[in-house]
């Protein structure tokens, strides 16, 4: 696509000893018109009592995942070739990649972070299943680990999620609608999520002076008919405000008017 540029990819493992890829995140970064977008797919630590481990997986990916405007380099390059002075834009004099700009996840205008985050419901299994049979899920939201950790700023600070109006997506017996009946008898939970982050939550339209949300959720649900996995896949649809290229004639006119105003 002609309007899509500066494409870059990155990955961060968080599995055993922080080196295996069974857990971690993969991401893609690109510029669409004049907006920068980032999509991160993740798989966090499993286990009902591993909330802190999941937070650490998020923090590791968020801090280490690095994209470039040019060719892909290793994280080692990012460490070695950062500016010599903190908060300085001047590149290291010995940096052979001085023309390359590095991007962190939250440097982007818009970020979508999704995947098997593995956060659970902090309630007894029998109580969760009873509520689900009664279709009473409102009380379960209050014990959702991910929302609790977000509210305490332990993970995904300033990220948002649309309201959940679907049943927990994990764990099912394969090819059935039955929650786990194995020996482990896992507690049903909303492990599969889609979160989003934007630098500017409200956008002001230049010509009409109208304001609107930069990201508007249109759809957030799970696919009930896809049963070959022990998870139910989750999907989302969003209306996203994108910056387009500046109108050079308009910018020049505004510049000239400002110069005349300053002269006066």
From TrEMBL:
Coiled coil: none annotated. InterPro entries: Endo/exonu/phosph_ase_sf, IP5, IPPc. The lineage of its organism: Eukaryota, Metazoa, Spiralia, Gnathifera, Rotifera. Residues 1-247 form the Inositol polyphosphate-related phosphatase domain. This is Inositol polyphosphate-related phosphatase domain-containing protein. It holds the Pfam family Exo_endo_phos2. One of its GO terms (molecular function) is phosphatidylinositol-4,5-bisphosphate 5-phosphatase activity. GO terms for biological process: phosphatidylinositol dephosphorylation. It comes from the Eukaryota.
């Amino acid at each position: 696509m002609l309007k899509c540029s500066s494409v870059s990819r990155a990955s961060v493992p968080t599995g055993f000893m922080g080196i295996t890829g069974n857990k971690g995140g993969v991401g893609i970064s690109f510029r669409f018109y004049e907006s920068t977008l980032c999509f991160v797919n993740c798989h966090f630590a499993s286990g009902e009592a591993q909330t802190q481990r999941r937070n650490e997986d998020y923090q590791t990916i968020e801090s280490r995942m690095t994209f470039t405007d040019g060719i892909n380099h290793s994280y080692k390059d990012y460490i070695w070739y950062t500016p010599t002075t903190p908060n300085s834009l001047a590149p290291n004099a010995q940096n052979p990649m001085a023309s390359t700009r590095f991007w962190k996840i939250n440097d982007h205008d818009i970020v979508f972070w999704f995947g098997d985050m593995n956060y659970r419901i902090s309630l007894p299994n029998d109580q969760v299943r009873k509520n689900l049979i009664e279709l009473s899920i409102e009380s379960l939201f209050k014990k959702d680990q991910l929302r609790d950790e977000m509210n305490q700023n332990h993970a995904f600070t300033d990220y948002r999620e649309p309201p959940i109006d679907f049943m927990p997506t994990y764990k099912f017996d394969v090819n059935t609608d039955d929650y786990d009946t194995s020996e482990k008898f896992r507690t049903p939970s909303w492990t599969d999520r889609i979160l989003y982050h934007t630098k500017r939550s409200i956008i002001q339209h230049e010509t009409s002076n109208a304001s609107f949300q930069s990201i508007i959720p249109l759809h957030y649900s799970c696919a009930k008919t896809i049963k070959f996995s022990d998870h139910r896949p989750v999907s989302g649809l969003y209306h996203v405000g994108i910056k387009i290229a500046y109108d050079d004639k308009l910018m020049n006119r505004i510049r000239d008017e400002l110069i005349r105003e300053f002269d006066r």
